[in-house]
Each structure stands twice: as C-alpha cells, then as structure tokens.
TrEMBL record:
Gene3D superfamilies: B-lactam Antibiotic, Isopenicillin N Synthase, Chain (2.60.120.330). It is an enzyme of class 1 (oxidoreductase). Keywords: Iron, Metal-binding, Oxidoreductase. PANTHER family: OXIDOREDUCTASE, 2OG-FE II OXYGENASE FAMILY PROTEIN, UPF0676 PROTEIN C1494.01. Its EC number is 1.-.-.-, 1.14.11.-. This is Oxidoreductase. Residues 190-301 form the Fe2OG dioxygenase domain. SUPFAM superfamilies: Clavaminate synthase-like. GO terms for molecular function: metal ion binding; oxidoreductase activity. Belongs to the iron/ascorbate-dependent oxidoreductase family. The keyword Nucleotide-binding does not apply.
C-alpha cells in the first residue's frame, strides 16, 4: 500500500458512504413477483466443461447478479447434517450461546444486526464461523458433540465450491485461474471467509412489522446460500429492477445453492459484476409461520490482500479495511 493512511481512510469513507446511501433507500416493501428467471447452472463434469460453465456463470452474474448451481459436489447428506447441527446449536439456552459472543465476524449474536435499509434489527440470531477467530467460541464436546468437526468440514466444502466458482470469474476477468484461491487462503491467520448459521425466529417470537433480514447487498466476493424446503422468504432484486423495487421470490430447493456476487467482487471487477439487493421477508398470513434456518458462506479475501480491479477503476484497498467499514455500518458494538 503506497497511500498515506489519511488519503486511504478518506477514500474508504467516501466509498462506504456511496454504498450506504444506496442501501438506505431500499427499506420499502416494493412489489413482489415470481416472474423473473434466476438461472440454474449445472456444474457436473466441471473440469471438462469449465470454459462453457464460466461463460454461463458470467452471463448470469452480469445480467441478473444471482444464480443457482446444481450438481455442485456437496452431498445432500452433508447439507442436511450441517442444518441439523445448526438447529441443535440454536436450541442451546441463550446463556450458553452468550458465552460465544460475536466479535468482528465470528460468534453468536441475537437481534443485533441493524440494516441501513430498514434501521430495525433483523428478527434472527446468527453464529459465524471464521477459522482464525474460533478458539474461544466453540461450544464444548459435552455441550454439542461433533459440532466443531461437522461445521469445519462443511466450511471446507463451501470454500472448495466457492473457489471453483471464483476461478471461473478470475478467468473471465483476465486474472490467473487460481487468483482468488490464493486470495482466500484458509491456512493463514489473515483468513476472513465466514460460514454464517442463521435462525430466523418463528412469528410468535418476532417483533411485528419487522424484517427477518432487511434489504442489503453482501460485503463479500461471493455468497453461497443454502435454504430448507418450505422455509421461504428470500427475495432478490436484480439490478434492472432496482428503480422499480420489484422483488423476485426464490423458492427454496434443497438440491441447489443460491449464489450472489458481493460488494468486494463488484469493486474488484471494476463494477463489471454487480452485487444486488436481497432480503428475507416475514411470513404473510396463511404462510408457514415457524422458524427459518439458512446457511450462508461468504468468500471474503484474506485481510492483507489488496483489492484492485483489472482497470484500476477504484484505488486499492485492503480486504481488511474494506470489510471492517461494512461491519461497522451494520453492528453497533463489534
Ligand atoms: O437467510 C437468507 O436466506 C439470506 C441471508 C443473507 O442474505 C445474509 O445473511 O447475508
Ligand atoms: Fe445477504
């Protein structure tokens, strides 16, 4: 980094402001539609079909910003096991979970994320796993047997898939094929990719008139989102629909993973790849009113990695500074 700290933080603040202004206008209900297609890209025979898959991913990401992947290599039984552990974790008493409090992007929080779009707390609890920060944050084996091993192995599978997808984007951006894999190195202390377990409260435990997750774009490069059948509510607003605030509902399907580009890759791609708004709305009367669980894996470049696009549209910024400014805008205390 050649800039003085002062110039650097002024630019950081300017960019943060721009992102937040966009987000602040997105809190309304808007219009709902099922009409827009969210493409599902088949990843089978990945190594042999890589350039064709890369073309399909690029088109879906550029044109819509969201896509789903099928035949992605993570076994359904592993996904189900990760969800079962997630339910077990959130069933622990609050006093137990409170021993593992959220700091930066690891640990447990409860109704503490206030989105700039809604300015109200998301009606959820979450527990985030970020490898280098976990030592004081794992429940003991006696509290939750096999939790740590199961979730770490799932995290690793998510990382592998995330890196596969990012290698396709690297090729299309003119970076070396393994560029993003090197930037998301799980063996270093600077690793900051995160597996987030989410539990949205059943209607009776939620405050009325609030969002399960207010409209937002993700901070990361790429998000992989796993949903449970029958637990809907995720809605996306592809860039084209931003002005009209037309929201497309994504029907949860167990065998596909819903993916979206985050702000970090948008910046890294000089805005060629858009990060788009999404949210989780509360159930409407007549819909399933029970709890909703989801799992999200956020590919976030290691702290010391410099984010600079192929055309250098924006000044270089470290992934650490980039992420920190977005976390601060969302959580008061961390
Ligand atoms: O739970 C979901 O379906 C979405 C979660 C999400 O968008 C997030 O945590 O960033
Ligand atoms: Fe998100």
């Amino acid at each position: 980094m050649t800039q003085s700290p002062q110039t650097q933080s002024a630019q950081t603040a300017g960019y943060a402001l721009q992102e937040l202004e966009k987000e602040a206008g997105m809190g309304a209900m808007g219009e709902e539609t099922f009409a827009r297609e969210v493409r599902c890209i088949d990843l089978s025979d990945f190594e042999n079909r890589k350039s064709e898959i890369a073309d399909e991913l690029w088109r879906a990401a550029v044109e819509i910003g969201f896509f789903q992947v099928s035949h992605h290599g993570i076994a359904l039984s592993d996904i189900r096991q990760a969800f079962s552990m997630t339910e077990d974790f959130f069933s622990l008493p609050d006093e137990v979970k409170a021993q593992y409090p959220l700091a930066r992007n690891a640990g447990w929080e409860n109704k503490s994320q206030v989105r700039p779009s809604t300015k109200t707390p998301d009606q959820k609890e979450s527990y985030q796993i970020t490898r280098p920060l976990m030592a004081p944050l794992w429940p003991g084996e006696e509290e939750l047997p096999a939790f740590k091993d199961t979730m770490l192995s799932f995290e690793s599978q998510c990382w592998q898939l995330g890196m596969k997808l990012l290698s396709c984007f690297a090729m299309k951006l003119g970076f070396p094929e393994h560029f993003f894999e090197q930037a998301h190195n799980p063996d270093q202390q600077t690793y900051q990719s995160t597996l987030r377990m989410l539990h949205y409260y059943a209607t009776e435990q939620s405050e009325q008139g609030m969002w399960r997750a207010g409209a937002h774009t993700d901070f990361d490069c790429l998000t992989l989102l796993f949903q449970r059948p029958g637990q809907g509510g995720l809605q996306v607003c592809p860039g084209k629909d931003l002005e009209s605030q037309r929201w497309t509902s994504i029907e949860p399907r167990e065998e596909v993973i819903t993916c979206n580009i985050g702000d970090m890759l948008m910046r890294w791609s000089d805005d060629q790849l858009p990060s788009n708004f999404h949210r989780v709305r509360s159930p409407l009367p007549g819909e399933y009113q029970g709890a909703r669980y989801s799992l999200a894996f956020f590919c976030q470049a290691n702290k010391d990695v410099e984010i600079l696009g192929p055309q250098a549209k924006y000044p270089a910024i470290s992934a650490e500074d980039y992420l920190q400014q977005r976390i601060q805008a969302n959580f008061a205390k961390v």
